Amino acid sequence: MLRYIVQRLVVFAITLLGVAVVVSALLRLVPGDPAVVFLGENATPQAVAELRRSLGLDVPWPAQLLRYLSGIPTGTWGGRSSSGNRSRSSSPKGSRPLWSSLSRRS
Fold first, then answer.
1. Is residue 36 part of a domain?
2. 86: in domain
3. What is the pLDDT of residues 82-103, one digit of tens each?
4. What is the DSSP letter of 88?
C-alpha cells in the first residue's frame, strides 16, 4: 500500500511539473506585453518597465518558471497579486473579474 501511495505521489509531481511547463509556455506565446495590457496603451515606457520588473517579466522564461516551481512547496503561487494593494477606484478600467459582470445580467 505504501508503494502505491508513493507511486501516485510521483505521478502527481510529474503531472504538476508538466502542466506548469505547458501552461507557462503557452502564456509566453500569447501576443502582446502583459505590462502594456495591464497599464493600457498610453502608459509611459518607464511605467511599463517598472511593472515588468515588479512582476518578474524582465527575467528569462526558464528563470520565471523555476521561481514559480520553487514556490509551490511553500505555497507561494506566483508572488504578489496583479492588483497589489490598490483600491478598486485606482484599478485600470476593465480589471473587474469576468464573473462580476455576469452576475448583474440575471
1. yes
2. no
3. 444 444 445 555 555 555 556 5
4. G
